[in-house]
Specification:
By secondary structure, the chain is of the alpha/beta class. The chain is built from 14 helices and 15 strands. Helix content is 40%, strand content 21%.
């Protein structure tokens, strides 16, 4: 009898001839996520829609909880479970199931057994094996069978070479492995939306580098500490993530002095994209992820988003475009960024927010205001002061 972790994937399984590429990336990500458990765990093989991880020594509760948390937030994984693996014979399965239930059945009034035969050539049906195992549990522990609403379920999966016995199926985030869809920058502001946008982009397979624009010393450096905490939390899902801290105070002052005040946010966000464009020339990154949600604030109307995006040929991705705020907050709570995001901080965009911002920008007028700025020089000076931070999982 031995223990294994069975990791299932669904969307990857549908990739046809490209499946091996996605599985290879998922295996790579799993090795990185579980590197400090290398002595205990070994990725043994891939079969069908599953990756099998051998457990060299029995896992204590603390180790399993840590592993569970990492797998639960690994993009590409649909579900996973810790199993006992035994020979696929009814007598051996029944004996192992009775032993397995010893730690599960206490204080639980009833149970159910579900059996799935991957190997249909076995000389017994799923129903026969479920009845046999269930009868043994009733006889041993005096508990009751409840097929409709049991307090716990014992699962048995019979494969050609082995049978798996397990109880708890843990749901993952699904999607695609980080790194399988290319690279992108994410504009990480410190608010609620942008970390959720980063999470959704990572689940679609994007490897991310975060850009944070700040106005220190005009604003408090606490905003930088906050973004570092957000990046560390996102790194639990994404894996290690680089964050570039870019000062934009000089840019904001130039915008305030030389352009129409109604366009301050639009022009500033154009600088964000131009800076990402410049960085991407060296790093081979041609996409930018933002936390924009249609109509949520003045800069996120269709006209304003068009006027901002027109400054670059980079692909601008907006995972939250059609999301409402309640949905975004719910996701932020689930991934652990919400409590960090709501900590008070000085925001670079809010620093020079006009009293009456433009909500229906005219692109020609925006371009005429942009021409008043020495954009290249301002960008060069900002990039000279860039600072890099490597966020590791918190």
């Amino acid at each position: 009898m031995k223990e294994m972790i069975v990791v299932n994937f669904e969307e990857i399984f549908l990739k046809g001839d490209n499946r091996r590429f996605f599985v290879r990336q998922l295996k790579k990500n799993l090795k990185e996520k579980l590197a400090d458990f290398g002595r205990l765990l070994e990725i043994e093989r891939v079969r069908g829609g599953s990756i099998f991880i051998r457990v060299r020594e029995p896992l204590d509760a603390s180790a399993w909880e840590k592993i569970k948390e990492r797998l639960r937030f690994t993009p590409g994984i649909t579900q996973f479970y810790l199993v006992r693996s035994v020979a696929p014979e009814p007598e051996i399965i029944t004996e192992a199931a009775v032993d397995y239930a010893r730690g599960k059945i206490e204080d639980k009034p009833d149970f159910r057994v579900t059996v799935k035969r991957v190997d249909k050539h076995k000389p017994f049906t799923s129903r026969e094996l479920a009845a046999r195992v269930g009868a043994a549990l009733v006889e041993t522990y005096g508990t009751k069978v409840n097929l409709e609403n049991p307090s716990w379920t014992l699962h048995v999966k019979v494969r050609p070479e082995q049978a798996f016995i397990y109880a708890d199926v843990v749901q993952g985030v699904g999607g695609l492995p980080v790194g399988s869809s290319g690279k992108a920058y994410v504009l990480l502001s410190g608010g609620i939306d942008s970390p959720v946008a980063a999470y959704k982009a990572a689940v679609r397979g994007l490897a991310l580098t975060a850009l944070h624009f700040h106005s220190v010393p005009k604003t408090s450096p606490r905003s930088i500490d906050k973004v570092k905490d957000l990046a560390r939390t996102l790194a639990r899902i994404h894996g290690p993530m680089d964050v570039y801290f870019i000062p934009v105070l000089e840019i904001q002052q130039a915008i305030a002095e030389r352009t129409d005040s109604k366009l301050r946010l639009i022009l500033l966000r154009r600088f964000f994209l131009k800076i990402a464009e410049r960085l991407g020339e060296d790093e081979g990154i041609r996409a930018v992820v933002t936390g924009d949600s249609l109509g949520q604030v003045a800069s996120q109307t269709l006209e304003n988003m068009h006027a901002i995006q027109a400054v670059t040929d980079r692909l601008v991705l907006r995972p939250l475009l059609a999301e409402d705020k309640k949905s975004v907050i719910r996701t932020a709570r689930e991934i652990g960024t919400y409590d960090i995001s709501i900590r008070p901080h000085d925001d670079a965009c809010a620093l020079f927010t006009p009293k009456r911002p433009e909500t229906r920008a005219n692109l020609s007028y925006v371009e005429s205001q942009w021409a008043r700025l020495d954009a290249d020089s301002l960008i060069n000076r900002a990039l000279e002061k860039i600072e890099r931070f490597r966020a590791l999982p918190s």
